[in-house]
Each structure stands twice: as C-alpha cells, then as structure tokens.
Amino acid sequence: LEGATPDRDISLHNFSTRLWEQLVHFHVMWLTHWLFLWVGAMPHLCNLTVALCSHYDSIPVSTSLLRDTCGMTSTDLTRHLARKTNKQMFVSYNLQNTDSNLTLLVKHRIKEEMEAYPEKF
C-alpha cells in the first residue's frame, strides 16, 4: 500500500468515557485510507454506515449498510467524521438513546480524542 509502513497497515485504538451515567466505549480501526469507528455501551453491531468525500459536493456521500433506530444519528456522525478526516469512514453507532444532546457529547469526546491522538485517526 502506497504511503503505508508495515507497522501502520492496521492500527487499533480504544477509549471509554462516562456520558450521562452511562459508560460509552469507542473502538477505532485505522487502515491506510479509511477508518472504522464503533460507539456503544454493549457489544452489539446494530447499524453500520459509510461516508466518503466527493469532488462534486461539499457534503460527504453516505449510505446505511445495516440500519436500526439509530440510523440517522450514525449517518450524521459518519458524514461529520468523513469531512473532518477526509477519509472513507465506517461508523457503527450503538447507543439506544438518540437524544441530540448525547450525540453532541459523543462528537465532542471523539473530537477530544482526535486532538490528543491524531495519529490514530
């Protein structure tokens, strides 16, 4: 893979935080040109969305590969992260509480982690 070093072909990064009295886990898998982010409190894969930047529109193109009730939250987060990282982004958002305030806290926590560990994103 062009630009990849043998020890950077795949990178894993995990972190957790307590949001609204709920322990939320984050799992990041970095590959050369794309990222996978799993967010959840329990080990479930309830949905999966993908987004990537396009030369034709400022809003990343996205689609749901596996959908449940968190689908729009996952899609919005995927688009946001694809725009921020300029990489193809896969997100599985598995929190049953879809309150927009919780989603903002999740986004903020991801932003903090991206700033602290940019090499993981």
UniProtKB/TrEMBL annotation:
Pfam families: PAC4. GO terms for biological process: proteasome assembly. This is Proteasome assembly chaperone 4. It comes from Panthera tigris altaica.
